[in-house]
Every structure is written in C-alpha cells, then in structure tokens.
Amino acid sequence: MVKRVFITIDNVYPDDSGGKKLSLGRIMHARDNGDSVFVIHYNYSNQNIDSAKAFFHENGISYTCYNPVSDRTNIISRTFYIIRAFFHNEAEPYFFVRKDKAFNNFISEFIKNNAITDVSIESIFLFSVYKILLCDGCKINITFHNVESEFFMQLSNTAQGMLKKLYYKREGKVIRKLEHKILSCKKNSLLKYTFLTPPDSKFYIDKYDLSEGEYSLNINDIYVNSKIERTVNTEKPFFLFPGSLDFPPNNYSLKKLLHSFDQKIFNEMIPIVVTGKCSEKNKKIFSKYNSLKIVGYVNDAELKKLYSTCVACISPITVGGGVKIKNIETIKLGVPLIATKFSCIGINTEGKKVYLSDDSPSSFVSAMKNFLEITI
C-alpha cells in the first residue's frame, strides 16, 4: 500500500483560500484512490487547528500539527527572522523552515516510524526538507501552485501603491531564486514536480529543460462537502463575482471590464454582486459603479445562498497565475459560469455549464448579454 504524507505550510481546512482548496483536493483524491494518507501541518503562523483536527479525524486521515518552538513565533522573534531573511535574500517562510533543524529531524523520524513511501511537499517554501527525504528513500513530489515568481511580478504590476508594488517585486525576485534552486536539482528518479496548468509546465520545461518523466500536471479538483439547490432569484436577478477586490488580479480585471464601456451598458443589465474581502479604499474606488453591489466577506452559509440564487457567476480575470479555484468551485456546484478563456486554463470545462468568452472586455460583455437573453 502507498503510504503518502502531505506536508503543508498552511492549515488546509477550513479551505478558505485557493491554495488550501487545491491542497485539500489533492489530499482527498489520494485518500479516495486508496492511499494511506497522512498530513503534517508546519504551523509557523500559529493557526487554530481545531477544525482541521476534527475534519481529518472524521475522514480517516492522520493529522499532525508541528508547532515551531514558541519563542520563535512571537512578534519580536518573527520580526527578527523577517529581517534576517531579507538580508539573506530569501523568502521569509522558506528561511524560517530552513533554519528549523528540529523540524527537519522531526520529518525524518516521522518518515521512518510510519514507513512512508511517498511525500508531497505542498509549498515550495518547504523545500528545505528535500535532502532529508532523499536520504530516507521516499518518492518526492513538489507542487507548484502557480509560477510563483511571475505571479508576484504580475501582482507588482497590478497592485495599488508604491510600497505594495516594491514588496511584490522583491518577493518575485527572491522566489525566482528559490525556484531556480528547486528546479536545478541534480536529476533524481525519486523527485517529481507537479504543475497546475499546461502554460505553467511549459514555462518551467522551457526554462529548466525538464524531461517528460520529471513532472506531471495536477488533477485540478477540489473537495466540496455540500451541494446546493438552484433557486434563482427571478424578481431581483444578479450576477455573482466571488472574488476579493483586495486581490490585485481580481481588482485589475473587474476595473478593466467596467472602464471599457459607458456605465449605461452595465446599468441596463442585472447587478453584479461582489463577495470577498474589500478594503475601504477599494470600496470607495468601486463605489462609482452603480451596477456593482459589494457585500464583502460572507460566511459559508451566505455564500452558498448566493451561489443558489444568482443567475450565473462571472470570471472576467485576464491576469494572474495558477488555476482559478473559484471557477472550479462554481462548476462543481453546478452554477452557470461566464468566464474568460484565460481564467479557465487548466480547468476541464467540457460538458459543463461554462460560457467562455475571449479575453477582451467586449467579448466578455457580449457573453453576459447573450446569457441573459437565453435565461431571462
């Protein structure tokens, strides 16, 4: 039997972010395939793990939370590590893990005591455990959740404010250095890389001359533990955009769409309800668009109701990297999705309720209008 451990740097349940949803989907897929599954969560940011412990126990998955020594996780020590990482020109999470010798020893003991055969490293920031795993003879998979360096460079281009732009640009450079370190490893039959989309894999294949046996494409699935009954609100119909406007690609893409036309075009259609975190600054920026209704962060029950009652979800995204998790979630819930081709890269849309447009604002608006004509 395959005994597979997933090492995460984030608490993947509750799965309230894209990266968490993908990792949880990979974990549940391995369990459903009959693997004996273990999860090790390196809890370097002191996350609450009560829900995760209960969830994994209920699903027959061994869950271990590793807490770094407490004096390294207080504000003063954390600041000290951030400064040290900066001068070492390394990403702070990677530097933090690399310096944690106790964690590296813990991993080695865990592998031996549980006779682990396969290890999935769910973040490039956990790469420092790689050599230890090689010594233990495990098959190793490193998952790239997108082209991280390019993603941060894009965030730098779309972020608002000079400090954010500089921060993202610096992160992009240090992550590029880390990617080079990971992908320039001496060829080893035990090591394999997983990429999310064909464009991601092409980027790395071309840059690092990877052969076919050295990588695989992820099965981009997520775990959905509830279903919805569609009861569309026909009295007050609306489109749903489930994406935080504090996330630069969402902000940029929606703003580009709205800026490209006279607002009369959107006012003549149905409103667009936007969920997700939204700063007061962004609320003010988008307040001039009468066609938008920004509701901010909503809990699972409220989001489920919006999925159930909306006419369709929209995804006008034209920048960013990786896989658009909200699109996968929308499709799995059976909600119609109007989306740019860019936002569906790496997602199986065949036979689904997906209405694709080209990546131009005019094509996307046409898709919205055409959908309304056949549904309302």
UniProtKB/TrEMBL annotation:
Set out the biological process GO terms recorded for this chain's protein.
lipopolysaccharide biosynthetic process
Gene3D superfamilies according to UniProt? Glycogen Phosphorylase B (3.40.50.2000)
Q: Mind listing the UniProt keywords for this protein, alphabetically?
A: Glycosyltransferase, Transferase
Question: Could you tell me which Pfam families the record lists for this protein?
Answer: Glyco_trans_1_4
A Gene Ontology molecular-function term?
glycosyltransferase activity
Signal peptide location in the record? none
Q: What is this protein called?
A: Glycosyl transferase family 1
Q: Which organism is it from?
A: Xenorhabdus doucetiae
